[in-house]
Design a protein that fits this description.
The structure is a homodimer of 418-residue chains. Chain A is of the alpha/beta class and 418 residues long. Chain A folds into two domains: 3-224 and 397-410, Aldehyde Dehydrogenase, Chain A, domain 1; 230-378, 3-Layer(aba) Sandwich (Aldehyde Dehydrogenase, Chain A, domain 2). The first copy, chain A, is 44% helix and 20% strand. Chain A has 14 helices and 16 strands. Chain A has a seven-stranded parallel β-sheet with strand order 10-9-11-8-7-12-13. In chain A, helix 6 (129-140) links the parallel strand 3 and strand 4. The radius of gyration of chain A is 24 Å and the shape is globular. Chains A and B meet through helix 1, strand 2, helix 10, helix 14 and strand 13 of A and helix 1, strand 2, helix 10, helix 14 and strand 13 of B. Strand 13 of chain A pairs parallel with strand 16 (404-415) of chain B, so a sheet runs across the interface. Chains A, B: Residues 1-24 are annotated as: Disordered. Chains A, B: It catalyses: L-glutamate 5-semialdehyde + phosphate + NADP(+) = L-glutamyl 5-phosphate + NADPH + H(+). Chains A, B: Its main location: cytoplasm. Chains A, B: This is Gamma-glutamyl phosphate reductase.
Amino acid sequence: MSVESYMQSVGQQARTASRAMARAETEQKNKALLAMAEAVASKRDELMQANEEDLQRGRSNGLDAAMLDRLALTPARIDNMIEGLRQVASLPDPVGEISDMAYRPSGIQIGKMRVPLGVIGIIYESRPNVTMEAASLCLKSGNAAILRGGSEAIASNQALAACIRHGLQVAGLPAEAVQVIETTDRAAVGYLITMPEFVDVIVPRGGKGLIERISREARVPVIKHLDGICHVYIDSEADLTKAINIAINAKTHRYGTCNTMETLLVDGMVADVVLPQLAERYHELGVELRGCSRTCAILGDIQAATEEDWSTEYLAPVLAIRIVDGLDQAMDHINTYSSQHTDAIVTENYSKARRFLREVDSSSVMVNASTRFADGFEYGLGAEIGISTDKIHARGPVGLEGLTSQKYIVLGDGQIRR
Amino acid sequence: MSVESYMQSVGQQARTASRAMARAETEQKNKALLAMAEAVASKRDELMQANEEDLQRGRSNGLDAAMLDRLALTPARIDNMIEGLRQVASLPDPVGEISDMAYRPSGIQIGKMRVPLGVIGIIYESRPNVTMEAASLCLKSGNAAILRGGSEAIASNQALAACIRHGLQVAGLPAEAVQVIETTDRAAVGYLITMPEFVDVIVPRGGKGLIERISREARVPVIKHLDGICHVYIDSEADLTKAINIAINAKTHRYGTCNTMETLLVDGMVADVVLPQLAERYHELGVELRGCSRTCAILGDIQAATEEDWSTEYLAPVLAIRIVDGLDQAMDHINTYSSQHTDAIVTENYSKARRFLREVDSSSVMVNASTRFADGFEYGLGAEIGISTDKIHARGPVGLEGLTSQKYIVLGDGQIRR
């Protein structure tokens, strides 16, 4: 069978399964999730073995240490996977929720019902735990899923697919509700993103290159997250203790995450006071600083930032710093260079906080909190399939609700239009 | 200037204007809308004259009567335009609305704020009143708009553009907040739909061919409405008076609208009783019937429906009729042939109504009401930019809210992530 006809048949089966999933009862979906968790627990050895196969192939193909680390299924990661499945089972079911029912002058009663999107295609790289995460969120939100993980993880993903199928079967749900692509042929991705008749939305997870390519070539809507160039702006009326704590936490809590601060903006009125204290802390923590000319004048021995620094997602212990004069300059900088992921202001001034919240056009806008909070778990979504930097459908952390939409429902008593 | 650089500059100006629009006060936006209404009222003669120019060119280019009718700005249509602007001014402003604020265990308070999408591109055909409708909805929802109407209406649209600019100016809003494309070069559309850096969403309004082409070629998200193949299912437990009223109204209230019923499904248990009565009414009203073999057996002298009839949007006094055995067969037919626009069941049975509402995957699902109610005004949205048959972002009638999205806002007191 050609890759094209394989993908067509996967798509067709997903579309059919999506109908059954849309009407599946909450109890049934939870049963499937818990059975998957049990299957993972009882097949721990097989999973580790399959993963070892992937790791050996990876080593002989010369994968680097970071890639091998992401590929590895450790006992702790398997525990997390089991725990994750149980957590998703315990989340409220968003499907079927009815809201805003109201009567109209015509006598009809109108409102909205939350419904699954249908078939979701997830394209990701070599982390096998994403397979289970994506499967569980699509399943709980009543969608069918087509999962395409990195070819490096093919054996691990197929072993996980067996656990998923087992769970679906135990609950009496169609085995095609979650399909893990069996071919490592790269052409499969091309077909997956160009089948609007079978796939309703694509969620790519991975590097910027992958996501840009998919967005460019997709013929179905994409919920995407490009980069996270996040800012913290320390206002002239900031509480400086809060400012320092937040600026340190937003940069150094973790370096490789998309909600890590990459550029610090400091109001000229407080730069003299706050920057030397911050520089000392960053220095202790091993963070390299790159500053605008005014920052360099205050801090002396740091590298000058270039235009490129303002639009770089370092994902590393490097921080760009710019001194600005007031809120408007800070927001101009943010609206120019931010990737519209997460931006924060530190201020005690009510009106400036209010303006920042309204005027900064990012998926998460914060006052006096670390950008590191931009996360589905921290926001109380219970889980997250990704963080959207798009503007339509879903912005920010995407949980179960982001995998659904709302249709209109109309209840009448024989009404006709006059 | 080439069309490409013209469109680039339009895009760039729209992006800049969108920032000012996002923070524009409600009062300011309403002032602009009312000033536009006054400008239209006071320039009635100029508008009619510009429209006459379009009509004369249209006649000499051999446009058909229907097209000329859509192109014409009659005094009544100008009155409607003025009334429409005033109505949009009176609608509540969706921008800035904050919802779901809740505290998290970390101490941060998190919720959502409704925000404009940014820049909206609207592509439509030769009806000049769409220019004002689209401009007013984008403006009120805090977006910048780029409007591209059919070349047949260029003089009318430019005359309307002057009224729009006047209104923006009076309110102190940037003139580039609503730009009406000045070139009739078709290449302009191609550029408009491939500038993700300047345009956040495209709303095409027009025939299926136009919309399919735009969806295929667009590099930005499209909120689209393809066709309206709407169904009414008369269940075995329908109140037959309601059933007949709804079936007649859904087909004959207007033939050319997307929420008009195109296929009637009747349960085999009641077909003998209900079909002859309906056929008589349809016959009086001049509706041509095409039936499945069982329908033909009951009604005798009607044409047999072919497979093609089930997926045809007639937009004409033609109706396809099929007899089905029970709810499941009816929903199978709908989920196979419906364009997911609007589908209705007529029944007095609670459980069947409940299943139909949940399991039919259309943007509007109705019980005991005419499909003709699927409309922004009837639903209380106040206005409508179109009806979406998409599944992500917005389904069904799209009003002001559909031209916005929600960002997360986080209020803290110095919280950092542990």
